[in-house]
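Run: sequence + uridine 5'-triphosphate -> complex structure.
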Amino acid sequence: MKTIRKAVIPAAGLGTRFLPVTKAIPKEMLPIVDKPTIQYIVEEAVQSGIHDIYIVIGDNKRSIQHHFDKNIEFEIYLKERNKQDLVSLIENVSSLATIHYIVQEQALGLGHAIWCARDAIGDEPFAVLLGDMVIDSQVPCLQQLIEIYNEKQSSVIAVQRVKWSETSKYGIVRGKQVNKQLTLVSGLIEKPIAAPPSNIAIIGRYILDPKIFDFLEEMRLGVGGEIQLTDALQGLIGEQPIWAYQYEGKLYDVGDKLGFLQANVELALKHDHLKENFKLFLHKSIESTEKD
Ligand code: UTP
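>> structure
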């Protein structure tokens, strides 16, 4: 039985939906409450049992690397001031996992970012977690996918039903639903502008067979002038089954301004030290804006 040992986190996109902030700061470094987005993603992989993580970064994304590197000087500074709790906080970040970095020199699309990791992954199935999609769930979304992979020994992608009016923002799946959560995929289409085959949307967590690299190798630019993972998956369907799994959890697209704000509000309302005061603040601020 094959197991999932490695994860790729593409984080080299240009983040045009979040300009102007993404002019100099990768969206994956924007904080949700008190941690950068990318840390939530790495933690999800680690909690799902994966410790070998490959982050695909762009040329100007060294801040991601700095975040996970050890910062000895800062640790010494905090130790000298007896701030042991803060030392642990930053030590934990640098010891989360074994993180490797792969540079995607040009942002040619998600499919291309994953293809850049081909040598690092080799000939084994692997996980992909998009760097700008945060999922709040009891069981980490990736772990849910790994459980399906272990049963099926075949590629699995996480999906959720979205409003029909929003299908043009996602990759959309067509297929035969075999139970409440599982669909055997027969086709995929990236951001359909008309007549979407369903409202089952791909949300950014995948377990992929390494055969996907053969299809990515041959890919040309697709929708939006980018090399699309969805197009390569469409090729893979011809050779092996792909399962779509309706995961349990709440998704935040933090590469989008509204999604980013929603994530901050809802996760702050769950934060042990902030929730009470933040709830009070929200009530008061809603009251005062209603008066205006
Ligand atoms: P998105 O399509 O959301 O990222 O890619 P984007 O292109 O940066 O965003 P907009 O649409 O311009 O605002 C999903 C994930 O894939 C990564 C992104 O960093 C994001 O985490 N990605 C995308 C790459 O690593 N390389 C690419 O060429 C494109």
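>> summary
The first strand starts at residue 6 and ends at 11. The chain has a mean pLDDT of 94.
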